[in-house]
C-alpha cells in the first residue's frame, strides 16, 4: 500500500468513492495475473459484465465464486442443463441464460487453450509485445481507450475459437484487470 501524502492517496478517478471499487483498484486492477484460475475468474466476470457496469459484477463476485465452483474451469466445463437452471434461479448472479451458457462453454474452450499453450497465461503472452505486459502512461481518464489493436487481435482469435461475450471492449477490460495492460494513470500511487 502506498504511503499517504498529506493524508490522501491518489487513485485513478474511476475507483473513487466506493470502498469496494477502491480496494479492487488498489489490490488487484492492473497487477499481473499468472494463475490460470484467476484468469478464468476474470474471464467469467468480464463476460457477465457485458452491457452492465463493473461495480454491478464486483458486488456479486462472491456469489459468482460460489455459483461457479470457485471459478475452477474443470468443474464449470462439466456443468449440465440442470446447472444452468440452478444458476437461473440464483439471485446472487446475473440471471441471463446466454451469459450462463457462455460461461460453461468458455470453460471448455479455456481448457482447450490450456492444453494447447500449457496455460491460458501463456496464450495471452503470445499476443503481448515480447511476451511482456503493456505499460501505458496515460495522464487522464479521457486518454484510456475502450479497445486497442491488441484487444482486437485477442478477441478475434478467441471468437474464432468459439468464446462468447468476449468482444474487443470486454477483452481490453480483461487485459487491464489482469495486468496484461497497466493503465493506472501516471500520477496514481498504485501504478
Describe the structure.
This protein has 191 residues and is mostly helical. It has one domain: Endonuclease III, domain 1 (Orthogonal Bundle). It has ten helices and two strands; from the N terminus they run ααααααααβααβ. The radius of gyration is 17 Å and the shape is globular.
Poorly predicted regions are: none
**Strand content range:** under 5%
**Classification by helices and strands:** mainly alpha
Helix content: 40-55%
Largest sheet: 2 strands, parallel
What is the CATH C level class, in words? Answer: Mainly Alpha
The CATH superfamily appears as Hypothetical protein, domain 2
* Domain unit count: 1
How many DSSP-defined strands?
2
Strand order of the largest sheet: 1-2
How far the N terminus sits from the C terminus, by CA atoms, comes to 11 Å
CATH topology: Endonuclease III, domain 1
Task: Give the integer mean of the pLDDT values.
Answer: 95
Task: State the main characteristics.
mainly alpha, 191 residues, Endonuclease III, domain 1, 2 strands, 10 helices
Amino acid at each position: 500500500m502506498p504511503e499517504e501524502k498529506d493524508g490522501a492517496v491518489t487513485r485513478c478517478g474511476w475507483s473513487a468513492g466506493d470502498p469496494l471499487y477502491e480496494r479492487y483498484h488498489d489490490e488487484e486492477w492492473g497487477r499481473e495475473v499468472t494463475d490460470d484460475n484467476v484468469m478464468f475468474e476474470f474471464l467469467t466476470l468480464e463476460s457477465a459484465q457485458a452491457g452492465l457496469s463493473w461495480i454491478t459484477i464486483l458486488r456479486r463476485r462472491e456469489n459468482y465464486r460460489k455459483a461457479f465452483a470457485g471459478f475452477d474451469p474443470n468443474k464449470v466445463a462439466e456443468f449440465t442443463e440442470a446447472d444452468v437452471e440452478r444458476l437461473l434461479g440464483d439471485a446472487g448472479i446475473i440471471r441471463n441464460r446466454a451469459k450462463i451458457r457462455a460461461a460453461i462453454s468458455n470453460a471448455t474452450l479455456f481448457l482447450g487453450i490450456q492444453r494447447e499453450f500449457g496455460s491460458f497465461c501463456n496464450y495471452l503472452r503470445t499476443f503481448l509485445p515480447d511476451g511482456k505486459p503493456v505499460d501505458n502512461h496515460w495522464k487522464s481518464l479521457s486518454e484510456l481507450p475502450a479497445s486497442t489493436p491488441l484487444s482486437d487481435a485477442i478477441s478475434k482469435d478467441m471468437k474464432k475459437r468459439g468464446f462468447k461475450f468476449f468482444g474487443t471492449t470486454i477483452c481490453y477490460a480483461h487485459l487491464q484487470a489482469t495486468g496484461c495492460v497497466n493503465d493506472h494513470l501516471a500520477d496514481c500511487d498504485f501504478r
